[in-house]
Specification:
The protein has 216 residues and is of the alpha/beta class. It has helices at residues 12-21, 75-81, 97-108, 124-128, 141-149, 166-175, 187-196, 206-214; strands at residues 2-5, 25-33, 36-39, 43-44, 49-51, 54-56, 60-62, 65-67, 73-74, 87-92, 114-118, 134-138, 157-160, 179-182, 200-203. Helix 7 (187-196) packs parallel to helix 8. The longest helix is centred in the middle third of the chain and has 12 residues, at 97-108. It starts with a strand and ends with a helix.
């Protein structure tokens, strides 16, 4: 089972420690700001700028947390500290064709190091053309329904774990190749999802990473 680190550690040692637990992918929330691909879990509430490692001005959010000076770093810095053969999962938060094209251009220079996901599935073919495996991100009930009623599609889906039960996972596995559940920070829930048939677990908790990796 694929173990995905929901937040890539800020140090190479932290990434190596998770890789040693069996983490196979490190997620990076990627935004295109002033033509540069940057990584930050903070998203602009209002349009912002990027300068000297900060997104300015305006309010940014990470879930329910708010910040006026959210940190960001170049995508290349994340790739540099993620140890091979683990991959970087680019979760595209700037949902525009320009952002997808920028990710494709970067990926073309380092083949075999990437996955990509996005809630706007129509952007994924541009990234897939660069040889990047793509995942359809499912964050709402309507998006889940769209996957279930669409024709079979080999691309994996990454789904909010609270939407998953035995019947739903079975239906998903009938129409897509893999089902990755996010964000699972409880080992008991991870075991339930594994029993349901998911093929990957995204987590912030090293205990979940180790559990997922132990399943092979």
């Amino acid at each position: 089972m694929l173990a995905v680190a929901h937040r890539t550690p800020v140090s190479a040692a932290g990434c190596r420690a998770l890789a040693d637990l069996g983490v196979g992918a490190f997620e990076a929330d990627v935004q295109l700001i002033r033509g540069e691909l940057v990584v930050s879990h903070f998203l602009p509430v209002f349009p912002g700028l990027h300068r000297d490692g900060r997104m300015l001005p305006g309010l940014h959010r990470d879930g329910w947390r708010l910040s006026r000076t959210a940190r960001a770093e170049p995508l290349a810095a994340v790739l540099d500290r993620v140890p091979a053969p683990a991959r970087v999962l680019v979760d595209l938060k700037t949902e525009t064709p320009a952002a997808a094209d920028a990710v494709a251009a970067v990926a073309a220079g380092s083949p075999g190091r990437w996955y990509a996901s996005c809630k706007r599935w129509d952007l994924l073919p541009a990234v897939a053309a660069a040889g990047v495996p793509t995942w359809r991100s499912v964050a709402t009930r309507p998006a889940l329904a769209a996957v279930l009623r669409a024709p079979a599609d080999a691309r994996p889906v990454t789904v909010r774990h609270t939407y998953l039960d035995r019947a739903t996972v079975a239906r998903l596995r009938a129409v897509t190749s893999e089902v990755v559940a996010w964000t699972v920070n409880d080992v008991r829930r991870a075991a339930q999802l594994a029993d349901l048939g998911v093929t990957g677990l995204t987590s912030d908790d090293p205990r979940v990473h180790a559990y997922a990796a132990s399943l092979g």
